[in-house]
């Protein structure tokens, strides 16, 4: 049976799926802070999560909803060109709001906005730092009642550009300007960011941890999507499907997409779910786990294979014993694997896999 509507699931990293599952409350909470930006500490929020937990999707949705509320959204990814990229995006987006008010702008701001051809001024825009130019545009927008939201994806703690941005963003807040910032990053990067001696104000920023989505929430969402499209998905069957995803956002979209394409008899059975889950697992291997595993050195592979043969989270000492080495001898492999986002440390001295089915892949691979 061919469905008459497009597949509502989108298993692509960084792309906003038509159906958001389990992230709406945190998005709604942040958007509500835009109305009370002067006294709401949630206006500066750090979204923290492992790879595939939907950080980029959350930022995309926050940005879209902020624009719908009349804010300008400046969306950038982490790079050493962060400030220049933010300035270029802000200049473009702000132009929509300020181009009709050229006569009310100062010569300096006209130049900074790119409206200054033929404008005579004693101060040239090149005399200003990039952050100063950003601040002047933010001030002009604030005077018009227009807020500016900066979203920064894949934040890195050791970036001088991010340090400069964050330091100057704090000054914009102190001026009570209509401005907000949502930053997304991996746990150890955000941890390094908030512990930076220069950026102590970020320790007071709101932090939202993106963890696995509640299994019942996944099941209910599956039921809603399939029922609205003419197929019956009983709760017990939906619960089996939800458990197969382990609450991992990418896998939720992947399994939902496969099940959407393979079902079509009116009432979805557990057998269909098991079939779809197996297909999704194989796609997870092929598209995600295998490419990451291929990037590991021989010793790193030995480390994670030994880890896979243990219960998770695994004690580093047990992994070292399984490899026939001392714990101090494997410390470098632990660090390297964390840096490659293949494992993470949920507690001191313990490790777990970042991606679902990493364990199964390592135990099954030739």
How would you sum up this structure in a few lines?
The protein has helices at 24-33, 55-68, 82-98, 107-113, 130-143, 160-174, 187-194, 215-228, 235-245, 249-262, 270-293, 298-308, 316-323, 331-339, 358-364, and strands at 44-49, 72-77, 148-153, 179-185, 206-210, 314-315, 343-347, 350-353. The chain has 366 residues and is α/β, with parallel strands linked by helices.
Task: Outline the structure in words.
The chain has helices at 24-33, 55-68, 82-98, 107-113, 130-143, 160-174, 187-194, 215-228, 235-245, 249-262, 270-293, 298-308, 316-323, 331-339, 358-364, and strands at 44-49, 72-77, 148-153, 179-185, 206-210, 314-315, 343-347, 350-353. It is α/β, with parallel strands linked by helices. The protein folds into three domains: 24-210, Rossmann fold; 215-292; 295-364, Arc Repressor Mutant, subunit A, CATH 1.10.10. The strands form two sheets. The protein has a five-stranded parallel β-sheet, with helices on both faces. A three-stranded antiparallel β-sheet has the order 6-8-7. A hairpin with a 2-residue loop joins strand 7 and strand 8. Helix 8 crosses helix 9 and helix 12 (298-308) crosses helix 13. Residues 115-125 have low confidence and may be disordered.
Largest sheet: 5 strands, parallel
Count of DSSP-assigned helices: 15
CATH architecture of the largest domain: 3-Layer(aba) Sandwich
Order of helical and strand elements = HEHEHHHEHEHEHHHHHEHHEEH
């Amino acid at each position: 049976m061919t469905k008459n509507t497009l597949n509502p699931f989108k298993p692509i990293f960084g792309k906003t799926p038509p159906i958001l599952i389990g992230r709406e409350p945190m998005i709604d909470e942040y958007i509500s802070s835009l109305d009370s930006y002067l006294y709401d500490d949630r206006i500066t929020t750090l979204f923290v999560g492992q790879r595939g937990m939907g950080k980029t999707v959350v930022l995309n949705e926050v940005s879209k909803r902020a624009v719908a509320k009349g804010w300008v959204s400046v969306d950038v990814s982490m790079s050493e060109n962060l400030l220049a990229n933010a300035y270029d995006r802000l200049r473009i987006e702000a132009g929509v709001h300020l181009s009709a008010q050229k006569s009310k702008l100062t010569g300096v701001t006209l130049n900074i906005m790119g409206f200054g051809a033929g404008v005579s001024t004693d101060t040239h825009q090149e005399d200003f730092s990039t952050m100063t130019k950003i601040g002047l545009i933010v001030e002009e927008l604030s005077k018009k009642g227009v807020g500016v939201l900066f979203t920064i994806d894949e934040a890195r703690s050791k970036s001088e550009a991010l340090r400069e941005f964050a330091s100057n963003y704090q000054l914009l807040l102190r001026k009570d300007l209509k401005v907000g910032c949502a930053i997304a990053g991996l746990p150890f990067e955000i941890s390094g960011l908030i512990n930076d001696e220069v950026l102590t104000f970020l320790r007071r920023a709101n932090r939202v941890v993106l963890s696995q989505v509640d299994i019942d929430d996944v099941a209910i969402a599956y039921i809603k999507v399939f029922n609205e499209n003419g197929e019956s998905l009983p709760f017990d069957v939906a619960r089996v499907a939800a458990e197969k995803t382990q609450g991992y956002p990418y896998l939720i979209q992947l399994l939902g997409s496969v099940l959407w394409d393979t079902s079509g008899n009116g009432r979805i059975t557990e057998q269909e779910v098991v079939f779809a889950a197996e297909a999704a697992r194989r796609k997870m291997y092929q598209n995600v786990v295998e490419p990451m595993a291929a990037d590991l050195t021989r010793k790193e592979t030995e480390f994670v294979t030994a880890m896979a043969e243990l219960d998770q989270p695994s004690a580093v000492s047990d992994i070292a014993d399984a490899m026939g080495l001392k714990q101090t001898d494997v410390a470098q492999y632990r660090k390297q694997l964390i840096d490659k986002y293949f494992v993470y440390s949920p507690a001191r001295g313990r490790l777990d896999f970042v991606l679902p089915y990493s364990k199964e892949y390592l135990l099954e691979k030739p």
